[in-house]
TrEMBL record:
GO terms for molecular function: tRNA methyltransferase activity. GO terms for biological process: tRNA N1-guanine methylation. Keywords: Cytoplasm, Methyltransferase, S-adenosyl-L-methionine, Transferase, tRNA processing. PROSITE patterns: SAM_MT_TRM5_TYW2. One of its GO terms (cellular component) is cytoplasm. This is Methyltransferase. It holds the Pfam family TYW2_N_2.
Length: 336
């Protein structure tokens, strides 16, 4: 199939591909071509002169024959409906705990057939419960285990889903918080889990120190393994209650991460205590649609005023829908 394309030396291929993806003009219906020296990147349309100037100087507009890209099957193709699931490492986690055995098995079979990287399919038997926010699972298909290694933004997280809470759905949110941190900052992650915020920040932004706190001993054990797995040295993994640890590190933090949305408000006094003048609290909550932010702002303000301090709200956003008429929200509050 004949297509207009960008011809570029192989060493410039990946950077050019990223430009085409950003411009949304890379044609994914056919396979990228190659010879010993060049890559041939198919286009959905001809780039504008301004767009062409963003390519490496070695890039040339060309025309070539391409092979049609065979569409990979997806679970919907085999099942006739879209199953609700998420993939964590090489484990697929079904979202509906009320699935009957036969339907769960059908979905599991489709997932294993369409996701070559998936080795285990789990079904939750309970909601997220208890102080450590964990669930019980049933292995529906594949290898009988709940431990995996999840990859995200160049980091690896070893996690046992039956012992610690972890979701890949906050990956974009973790990257967003990362963008607030500057080199040399001190960051306190009050409810760190296995380290998805802490390790990403330590690895990508080179803060002076990340203090990663969690009360769950299993989470801290995996956090310590993940620190080694990711070769980061500027993290201190702390097993303990965030309230008590806040007393040790009072006034130290440029950033305090409070990713415990159901109960973060109970720890606001400690978060304020941790934050140095001008430091930022990244506060998460679960709020109703008719009061997304105002009540949370008042809670933060009350905690600050109790300590003789003031707040400035820098940002507020809905992270995701949590339940009917309930939302997971986040806001950045500077503590003055």
């Amino acid at each position: 199939m004949r297509r207009q394309c960008i011809k570029v030396p192989k060493k410039k291929g990946e950077s050019t591909r990223r430009i085409l993806l950003k411009l949304e003009i890379l044609d994914s219906s056919v396979k990228i071509g190659a010879d010993e020296t060049f890559l041939y990147l198919p286009l959905t349309r001809e780039p504008t002169p301004d767009e062409l100037r963003s390519f490496p100087k070695e890039a040339e507009l060309n025309e070539c024959d391409f092979q049609i890209q065979k569409k990979k099957p997806v679970p919907e193709d085999l099942l006739g409906f879209s199953p609700a699931y998420e993939v964590i490492g090489d484990i697929a986690l079904l979202e509906d705990p009320d699935l009957d055995t036969q339907k769960a098995s059908r979905i599991a079979d489709a997932l294993l057939r369409t996701h070559p990287n998936v080795k285990t399919v789990l079904k939750p038997l309970t909601p997220v419960i208890g102080e450590f926010r964990v669930r019980d699972f049933e292995v529906v298909a594949g290898e009988p285990r709940t431990e995996t290694i999840h990859r995200e933004y160049g980091c690896r997280y070893k996690v046992d889903l039956a012992r610690v809470y972890f979701t890949p759905r906050l990956s974009t949110e973790r990257s967003r918080v990362l963008s607030w941190v500057k080199e040399g900052d001190i960051v306190v992650d009050m409810f760190s889990g296995v380290g998805p915020y802490s390790i990403l920040i330590a690895k990508k932004k080179k803060p002076s120190k990340v203090l990663a706190i969690d009360k769950n001993p299993d989470a801290v054990r995996y956090l310590r393994e993940n620190i080694i797995l990711n070769s980061v040295k500027n993290i201190e993994a702390i097993e303990g209650d965030a309230r008590e640890e806040a007393k040790r590190f009072a006034g130290a933090a440029d950033h305090v991460i409070m990713n415990l949305p159901h109960k973060a408000f109970e720890f606001l006094d400690s978060a304020v205590l941790l934050t140095k003048p001008g430091g930022i609290i990244h506060y998460y909550g679960i709020t109703p649609e008719n009061d997304l932010f105002e009540s949370s702002i008042e809670l933060i303000r009350a905690a600050a005023e109790k300590a003789g301090r003031k707040i400035e709200i820098l940002d507020k956003r809905v992270v995701r829908s949590y339940a009917p008429h309930q939302y997971n929200i986040c806001m950045e509050a500077r503590i003055i």
